[in-house]
Amino acid sequence: MATDNTDPTAEFRKNQSWLFDSKAGGYVRKTAVGLLTLVIAAFVLFPLYWMIVTAFKTTAEIQQIPPTLFPAEFSLEGFRLVIESSLESSGYDGFVESAFGVEISSAINIDIIGMILNSLKVAIGAGVIAVVLGTGASYVLSRHEFRGKTALMSLLLASLMFPGTAIMVPEWELISTLGLFNTHLALILIYGAMTAPFVVWLMKGFFDDFPDSIIEASRIDQCSSFETFWYVIVPMARNSLIASFIFAFLLAWNELVFALTLLDGQNYTVPPALLTFVQGFNTQWNVVAAASIIVSIPVLIGLAYIQKYFVQGLTGGAIKG
Amino acid sequence: MSYVDQAQSSYESATSRIPESLRVYLPILPVMALVGLFILYPIAQAIYSSLFNKSLLAPEDAEFVGMGNYAEIASNPDIHQVLWNTFVWVTVGSVAAIILGFLMGWLLHEKLPYTSVASAIVLIPWVLPRVVGASIWRFMFNGSQGVVNQLLVTTGLTDEYIVMLGSSELSLWPPIIGMIWRLAPLFALLTLTSLQGIDEHLFEAARMDGATPWERFRHITIPMMRYNLAIGFLLMLIYNIRNFSMVWVMTRGGPGVSSSTLPVMIYRSAFIDFQVGFASALSVLLFAVLLVFSYYYIKFYDKMRGGL
């Protein structure tokens, strides 16, 4: 059957494709879409499901072959071991024993509370640095024309591309030279530097769309440029600022390579600490899963908050979502 | 006088000697100092170090070898395997993540209710701490207790459990699957956002003109999304090529170098073999590839924004 493109009517096209226009085709299509949805959903969600059920299994059940799809016995052993071990390594075991009469002796050695505190320190520090420095720069880059601007923006964008692994060695040397080895300040500065360009791009997208009339109005009301920035623009930029902060926070919370090379065991943030535990001899997977869930909670809260900024941030405000 | 005024007057007195034309650079300086010291300087240092035979244990004994490290890369017996692995990661990993992500984004846009809730859930693999995601996959591919093996046995694909992470023929694939799992949601989100950005009237008009769904897809959806797709495509390539944690957590690049990619090999040569010069030369190689990608990334970015 020859296709006649000159005929503009929809009528003509009907029955050209049984898949799109017949009733049977409709069923085939719906089934295919349904199956596709199921397969994709299973692929995305199953690992998450597996992490959760693993966390609630007993050690004995973890080692069972074949693995059980659902915990036969709902157990908090994994969480208990994580928390006990954490209390023990922070030296609170004696206190808990006398206060609650619970004896703590854990077979594992992972100080999850300590490492979460380390991570919080690093992630908040990096977020504050990136947002404070990045916002000021992005305001100028958005509102003023000056020489070298395009080159600067390209340089900032390009610096986002470079992987941590490739600059790890010079970074290690630099940090040692500065005397910052095994300090959290080193990570705060590096993560701040890694996310500041990102914040510049995200905030520039915001400032570019910021209406001139508001700034002019505040000029007429005799606000200085500082006052305009602080009292008028910053409050309106609140959401973008929070999103920038969370981006920086998440990067710092998740980063492995620098934390692994620039810190010693007792100062570890979450990712390297979890890594040593995962790769340790005779890994107890219910404990790993429990620890994983605990350290993922801040991330998921952050995600819920910034979900709508996510794409905007990735493409630097290119898409209005 | 409010603290904002105080800040302004102290800013003005501090900068009074700086010419007006240069003052505009001042707010940019701190960022550039930070990025310059901790990102750009290390990049330059890596390029410089790649010309020396240098050990991490005794960096002061560095010996200038010119292109020697690059010659060593070319003759290294492991490098072909590693480059091939990196290539497989980038092509297979990116293509699979793109197709899967596109389908996910399309389903979220057209077929699923509660799009915002569903897309938040779908995004979880992407935002989860890298080590957490990789650990889950490591456990699922575990040789003795792993659920993947059980699935293969149940479906009759294999007779017995395979120690995939410890096998030099198979160890490359589990981390790639993990990475597809992590990256596809990101591409899905990009797809979803750009689908939502297309004006419905275009489809309406095309329908009136009698365009089939395929033609509408081919002539409206794809062209309207092309910059977003280009950015997404480059992001997939970049994330795959620089991925370290998925490989390192799941296999440590082993056994041998069977699952090592370029970043893993850099890490191993620097922090296990202490060969800083060699590692730096590998880094330069990685930079070169990424520079090409970032050139296109910036170009497409430019097009979308209409100039920087």
UniProtKB/TrEMBL annotation, chain A:
InterPro entries: BP-dep_ABC_trans_perm, MetI-like, MetI-like_sf. The chain crosses the membrane at residues 32-52, 122-141, 150-169, 181-203, 241-263, 283-306. It is a multi-pass membrane protein. Residues 116-306 form the ABC transmembrane type-1 domain. It is found in: Cell membrane. Gene3D superfamilies: MetI-like. GO terms for cellular component: plasma membrane. One of its GO terms (biological process) is transmembrane transport. Its main location: membrane. The keyword Transmembrane applies. Belongs to the binding-protein-dependent transport system permease family. This is Carbohydrate ABC transporter permease.
Automatic annotation (TrEMBL), chain B:
Pfam families: BPD_transp_1 (PF00528). It is found in: Cell membrane. One of its GO terms (biological process) is transmembrane transport. The chain crosses the membrane at residues 24-44, 87-108, 120-140, 172-192, 227-250, 270-298. It is a multi-pass membrane protein. Keywords: Cell membrane, Membrane, Transmembrane, Transmembrane helix, Transport. Residues 83-297 form the ABC transmembrane type-1 domain. One of its GO terms (cellular component) is plasma membrane. SUPFAM superfamilies: MetI-like. It comes from the Archaea. Belongs to the binding-protein-dependent transport system permease family. This is Sugar ABC transporter permease. It comes from Natronoarchaeum mannanilyticum. The lineage of its organism: Archaea, Methanobacteriati, Methanobacteriota, Stenosarchaea group, Halobacteria.
